[in-house]
């Protein structure tokens, strides 16, 4: 692994404006159906390293964050040995998988305070922290969500 500071530049080689078959209106086969496809990518199911929009700058910024994290782990490995990045990775995995929060309190779409501390993002407020994309979502009560979780 090299100590890369800037992510590799790999722009997409092709882009098409043709709609995919899954997002085509059944009554008009040539038209894109925005109600079925949604306005953009779902921020809840999109991985953290993948950009939500199709803009190349956003994809570059996501790669920048991933490259910065890789550089940090490589520096820790060279300084303290392999145990330090492995320990930090295990702690991060435990905090990501071990916490459950009801949807009315933000759900698991937003990172927990433990995850933010481990990644060093506890002092940063970003757009995704305020506007999570769930403003128009279905409002279910805590009781309904717990019943679904325990399969009652």
From TrEMBL:
Keywords on record: Chaperone, Proteasome
GO biological process, one term: proteasome assembly
Stretches for region Disordered: 1-31
GO cellular component: cytoplasm; nucleus; proteasome complex
Record-linked InterPro entries: Ump1
Compositional bias (Polar residues): 9-19
Pfam families documented for this protein: UMP1
Keyword Glycosyltransferase recorded: no
PANTHER family: PROTEASOME MATURATION PROTEIN, PROTEASOME MATURATION PROTEIN UMP1
Family to which this protein belongs: Belongs to the POMP/UMP1 family.
Protein name as annotated: Podospora anserina S mat+ genomic DNA chromosome 1, supercontig 6
Organism: Podospora anserina (strain S / ATCC MYA-4624 / DSM 980 / FGSC 10383) (Pleurage anserina)
Lineage, highest ranks first: Eukaryota, Fungi, Dikarya, Ascomycota, Pezizomycotina
